[in-house]
Amino acid sequence: MKKFLVIGVAAALSLPAMAAAQPGERGMRADTNGDGLIQMSEVEAQAQQRFARLDADGNGAITQAEAAEAREKMKAMMAERRASDEGKHRGRRGMRGMRGGEGAMFERADTDGDGQVTFVEYNAPMLERFAKHDTDGDGAISADERAAAREARKAARGTRGQ
Questions:
Q1: What is the CATH architecture assignment of 2-159?
Q2: DSSP element (H, E) containing 157
Q3: What ranges do the domains of the chain cover?
Q4: Which of 93, 114, 122, 159 has the greatest CB tally within 10 Å of its CB?
């Protein structure tokens, strides 16, 4: 289960959904060079940027206090967005995975139990997801791989609760 859990706010900011799309469309925000492929280097650069935003003191590790501060900022932003949406988006999809509470997510991400989450710990679940979707192992996720991942997610959702 660790591989799917990251610090609470990181879940909301993590790798965009791997949906089949054209560059610039939903699911392709990670394709920063616009070549139609999601390269590992693009994903890593974005993960480093997200980590730096969470690491408020810039010491190379996220503490529970920093994670809580980022979580509160995210909640405020989401509340503001809901208020401005005028009811257009009523679902609660953004904070899935918060089983066990916000502190529990931090504890799962802190794999060495030292009370901090380093970039290696923060990035490990993303690397596992990337490898899972990069089925040919070429370091990039193609449109075909995105489509296959989307279909696998749909199939998995269809079998839940049976």
A1: Orthogonal Bundle (1.10)
A2: helix 143-159
A3: 2-159
A4: 122
**Contact 18/146 with Cβ under 8 angstroms?**
yes
The residues that bridge with 62 in the sheet, in sequence order, are 117
pLDDT at 158 over 90: no
Does residue 39 sit in helix, strand or coil? strand
* Residue-wise pLDDT tens digits, 92-139: 555 454 555 667 888 889 999 999 999 999 999 999 999 999 999 999
Q: Quick one: tokens of 53?
A: 């935003």
Please name the residues in contact with 146: beta carbons below 8 A apart, sequence gap of 6 or more: 18, 19, 20, 21, 27, 38, 133
Whether the CB-CB separation of 8 and 106 falls below 8 Å is answered with yes
